[in-house]
Amino acid sequence: MTVVIWVCAGMLSLAAVLVLTRMTIGPTMLNRVVAMDVLIAIVVAGLGLEAALNRHATTLPILVVLSLVGFVGSVSVARFAAHDDKGEGS
Amino acid sequence: MTWLDVVSAACLLAGCALSLIAAVGLIRFPDLLSRMHAGTKPQVFGLLLILVGIGLRLRDWSDVGMLLAVAMFQLLTAPVAAHMVGRAAYRRGAVRRDTLLVDELTPVLEAEDRPGP
Amino acid sequence: MSRERSDGVPGDAPVRRNGVQWPMLIGLTVVWVLLWGGLTVGNVLSGLVVAVVVTLVFPLPPIVFGGRLRARGLAVLIGWFVVELVVASVQVAALALRIGRPPLNAVIEVDLRSRSDLYLTLTAELLSLVPGSLVVEVRRSTSTLFLHVLGVRDESDVEAARRRALRQEERVVRALASDEELAAYLAEGVGR
């Protein structure tokens, strides 16, 4: 089990680096929102991995919160972006 | 190490691999909407696999209930967020026309815009 | 079409039901119990109280649901959803890892055959959850979805994506519709 967990952690770390790259280079706010969504999914996966390794459930409430916070975040940025669009007329 | 652990490990591995592939897609795809396709993969299928993996390891009903809640929230919210972002992207013109083979929405939007303000 | 909708007419806005919305109450209570992680009397009672407060403070327009749950249709719906999820995930993964030119995409218009907010919403949700298709725009008045489809090579792929969306809708209707709705839906489908 430990080997599996380490392989998983490696894949997740690499994924997080790639996602952070996309978040940095953008080029637009919406691109960063999509990257943030994926990053949250990766964080959820990482926390879950740790819970599975040590067989405890202390981090499960964090998973619930993260799955909702990500949604609120991307929806508000999407609304903001659409609004911004109208104001600048492009 | 029972067979449940084996199944759980397989689920975790597959879920993490999907997350990695999604990140690769996020980097490689040329425009925002294609990147969103890559992004929905770990959020839905990958996350479901990982949640199943955790559930098989913990084997406790109250924990499984909480995992079910996470899965349900994801399934309910991911499409809404994707739609909001996709719509905003399309309306802002963040779509690269050269990646589209067919585009049946732009004529519709233009026809609606003409009589409007 | 059996039912006309009158969207946008101010006097005809959906009436907020005064009574208690039982499905909503039960759903919220179930979520509360799941979050607290234990089926105890205290949890269920406090969940019910919270659910009543939430439904009173944030009332929602009632969903028009005249159908009934069909066990067989639901099983087909969920089974196909899982199959499509797996297949589409693998396809999108292959596209992401493929060396060479990135794939072409398409934005297609899909005219759904049913005229119901519930089926429209469910179809759009399920289509969005499957990787490879993404709902960009929705026209509620005509039940039209605009989908962004990843990785099309030619016209036949575009038509395949359109047919896939319509099949998804058919499964939703077959899982939830009443007999009259199903008959009307099938009758309209023949005419096209």
UniProtKB/TrEMBL annotation, chain A:
It is a multi-pass membrane protein. GO terms for molecular function: sodium:proton antiporter activity. It comes from the Bacteria. It comes from Jiangella rhizosphaerae. It is found in: Cell membrane. Belongs to the CPA3 antiporters (TC 2.A.63) subunit F family. The chain crosses the membrane at residues 33-53, 60-82. Its main location: membrane. This is Cation:proton antiporter.
Automatic annotation (TrEMBL), chain B:
Keywords: Membrane, Transmembrane, Transmembrane helix. GO terms for molecular function: sodium:proton antiporter activity. The chain crosses the membrane at residues 6-27, 64-86. It holds the Pfam family PhaG_MnhG_YufB. Belongs to the CPA3 antiporters (TC 2.A.63) subunit G family. This is Monovalent cation/H(+) antiporter subunit G. It comes from Jiangella rhizosphaerae.
